[in-house]
Amino acid sequence: MCMIQSGTKVLLINRPDHMGFPGYIAPGGKVDFPESIVDGAIREVREETGLIVKDIVYKGLDEFCDPSTGLRSMVFNYSVTSFEGELLSEPPEGELVWVEREAAMNLPMQDWFQRRFPLFFQPGTFELSFIWDGSKGETLKETIRNYNEAEETKVGARPSSR
User: Fold this and answer.
1) Residues in Cβ contact with 17 at an 8 Å cutoff, skipping those fewer than 6 apart
2) I need a surface site. Which of 25, 41, 108, 138 has the fewest CB within 10 A?
3) Nearest-CA neighbor of 126 among 161, 159, 150, 154?
């Protein structure tokens, strides 16, 4: 996932219901084997927005584990502030919208993206780890950490039920 910034604005995709994960979200997607994680992020930005990434910075990791299935999903998060090109006139994932960063949290978005959104703008990197019981539809444990260059700061680690 790539948070694309231009001044005080961020580029979000307004995904329609039929696309899955409806609401506002940053560009991103799956990595094609054997491309690198960062190359996959750059490609996804180009495919979903038309923009060509010039500089990309790693911001953090989201990890979702489901012990009932044995599956682990990882999302690598990046920040982009340098790019070129024009936005696609008919983007494949939904309407592309430049939004004031401060107003973005008022838009409809998935709870997992809303939780992650402010972390893109904090110094350092972040790590979100969730153990999810898909059969019960509940979070068993969540750990949220923010790392900066000076020291590791533990933001929170707690069992959770939803």
Assistant:
1) none
2) 108
3) 154
The pLDDT of residue 157 is 42
- Is residue 56 within 8 Å of 3, Cβ to Cβ? no
pLDDT at 149 (0 to 100): 61
- Closest C-alpha to 132, from 70, 50, 40: 70
How many Cβ atoms sit within 10 Å of the Cβ of residue 60? 22
Structure confidence by residue, pLDDT tens digits, 20-68: 778 999 999 999 999 999 999 999 999 999 999 999 999 999 999 998 8
Query: Tokens representing 30?
Result: 């799956």
**Rounded distance between C-alpha atoms, residue 59 and residue 2, angstroms:** 9
CA atoms within 13 A on the CB side of 14: 9
- Round to whole Å and give the CA distance between 121 and 124: 9
Four-point Cα dihedral 121, 71, 37, 150, nearest 10:
40
- How high is the mean pLDDT of the chain? 90
Q: Give residues with Cβ within 8 angstroms of 59, minimum separation 6.
A: 3, 77, 78, 79, 119, 120, 125, 126
- Look up tokens 């750990």; give the residue: 143
Pairwise CA distance, residues 150 & 69, whole Å: 38
Q: Provide the residue type at 148 as one letter.
A: N
